[in-house]
Amino acid sequence: MSVPLSRSPTEHYGLGINAATKWNSCSLAKSVAATLVGIALKEGAIASLDNPITRYIPLGGVYAKVSIRQLLRLASGVRWREDYTDPTSDRRQLLEIQCRWEEGGIAKHMASLPAATPAGESWVYNTGESYLVSLLMQNATSMNLADYCSDRLWSKVGMEADASWWTESPEGMTISGSGMHATLRDYARFGQFVLDEGRIGDELLLPAGWNAEAGTPFAVRDEMVPYGYMWWIPTLWDERLDGSFQAEGIYGQHIHINPRERLVVVVLCARSKPSFRQRLEINDDAFFAAVASALRI
Question: What's the domain count of the chain?
Answer without folding.
Answer: 1
